[in-house]
Amino acid sequence: MSEWLAAFAGESSAIGDLARDAAPDPGWPQGPDELGVFREHVEDQGAVEAALEGLEQAWEQYEVWS
């Protein structure tokens, strides 16, 4: 998901926000590609509900893409 997500860094959207937050994060999960892994990381970083919703939206689109 990480490589796919990076493509959205220039977008003005919840997914773009997530991509910009993930890019400089050295702890951003590189796998396995499971929503729970990414959600746990985002929650551990103190994410607000809007960030979690953005992650959910990104995951739904990622699953369609993959």
TrEMBL record:
Pfam family membership, one: YozE_SAM_like
Residue ranges constituting the YozE SAM-like domain according to the UniProt record: 3-63
InterPro entries attached to this UniProt entry: YozE_SAM-like, YozE_SAM-like_sf
Superkingdom to which the source organism belongs: Bacteria
Record-given protein name: YozE SAM-like domain-containing protein
Native species: Streptomyces spororaveus
